[in-house]
Amino acid sequence: MEHEPIEHVKDPESITYWEEYYRANPHPFNPSAFAMEMAKRMGTAGPVIELGCGNGRDAVFLGAQSKGPVVAIDQCEEETRRLNAEHGNKNLQFVAGDFSRYTPTTAPRYIYSRWTMHAVDEVTEDRTLDWVAAALVPGGEFMVEARSIRDDLYGKGESLGGHAFFTDHYRRFMDPERFAQKLRNRGLEIISLVESRGLAVHKQDDPMIVRVLARKP
Ligand SMILES: C[S@@+](CC[C@H](N)C(=O)[O-])C[C@H]1O[C@@H](n2cnc3c(N)ncnc32)[C@H](O)[C@@H]1O
């Protein structure tokens, strides 16, 4: 898929934190439980866009299954360059830039976001939702997983208002109903809205997670 270059994220603190994180954890490890679940819905259909792919753990998995194209965006230039060199192919491309400023050249069937809506401020979220709702093909789906406002990490660190807190990095916890309403306001239908533990267990950590699945009519 051809791309217009995407503008870079304007928050150097966020870029530095995640660049350093992926320098220490560069390789895609097992795909997330969310990716495995969503992959069953996607089958081989595409195009698929991933917002905030990090070290590519889910994009590489989805790219191996989909007939594509799969485009995975992240602000971390160094990591996307490495992922393209090691895992990119004509079906799977990693793109550096701000996912909230992306303009797809082909209407996506699936837009996938794991733990990225809670990584951005509300202005960035809203700008993302605007293009996501406009760009999906009719029948296309938006798949989102994020930490809930009822997660145990809520309230830890410096309060920034609006459910956002800063520890060693920024997190803005998701109010499920409010997020779902934003999607409805943009013309998407909610297929499912789940808030639960047990969905993203990692070692001792069992966060309270929101999963939202929405469809463009
Ligand atoms: C919590 S990590 C999640 C990574 C991956 N989705 C996963 O589940 O392992 C958040 C990711 O979003 C990326 N990110 C945050 N804001 C972004 C933005 N505006 N544009 C592109 N990437 C962004 C970060 O660089 C980081 O890789």
Q: Can you give me a brief rundown of this structure?
A:
The chain is of the alpha/beta class and 217 residues long. It has a single domain, classed as Vaccinia Virus protein VP39 (Rossmann fold, 3-Layer(aba) Sandwich), CATH 3.40.50. 31% of the residues lie in helices and 24% in strands.
Count of structural domains? 1
What distance separates the N and C termini? 25 Å
Q: What is the name of the CATH topology?
A: Rossmann fold
Shape: globular
The CATH superfamily title: Vaccinia Virus protein VP39
Largest sheet, described in full? 7 strands, mixed
- In N-to-C order, the SSE pattern is HHEHEHEEHEEEEHEE
- Helix content bin: 25-40%
Strand content: 15-25%
Widest sheet: strand ordering: 3-2-1-4-5-10-9
CATH architecture descriptor text: 3-Layer(aba) Sandwich
Explain the overall architecture.
There is one protein chain. By secondary structure, the protein is an alpha/beta fold. It has a single domain, classed as Rossmann fold (3-Layer(aba) Sandwich). The strands form two sheets. The chain has a seven-stranded mixed β-sheet with strand order 3-2-1-4-5-10-9, with helices on both faces. Strands 6-7-8 form a three-stranded antiparallel β-sheet, with no helix packed on it. It is globular and about 45 Å long. The protein starts with 11 loop residues before the first helix and ends with a strand. It binds S-adenosylmethionine. The site of S-adenosylmethionine has 21 residues, from helix 1 and strand 2.
